[in-house]
Amino acid sequence: xxxxxxxxxxxTEMRSRGSKLTDVVVLVVAADDGVKPQTVEAINHSKAAxxxxxxxxxxxxxxxxxxxKVKNELLQYELIAEELSGDTLFAEVSATTKKNLDKLxxxxxxxxxxxxxxxxxxxxxxxxxxxxxxxxxxxxxSTVLVTNxxxxxxxxxxxxxxxxxxxxxxxxxxxxxxLAFPSTPVEI
Length: 188
Prior knowledge:
24% of the residues lie in helices and 27% in strands. The protein is α/β, with parallel strands linked by helices.
């Protein structure tokens, strides 16, 4: 599951929460922009949460792209590419031309294998609430990421001092589902 935390300065708290619940952070840096204050903030949040970082240098297809400049700027934050004898995985990508997106996916898979990430599919579910809102037609709605166990329609839940019963679960395709397993985001 990918959780996108916006780069805009107003979303600092969202980036902080996001780095605390992730297994791997993919830091996207524009090759024509370089390291910005929000990039540094995301690096600091990730390091504080002790989460490994994979760097995706985007917009490598643009004429003003300077990949080496980005790599040099990241050196001061201890993000050293493997080719420079570091341990940070880098991918030079272009979202528009789809260049090297397969390499980025490969890096994510490699990092996940190294971390030996596992979850239990049995028992009651536990998870993280990513966001909540009040919907006029549905009432209180939360987007939940299941981290362990099985979440079923009709289950009771507790979050802080709030409790309730799951009346409906909607997956990322907007379809009603009755069951959600680990790494599955659902709206309840």
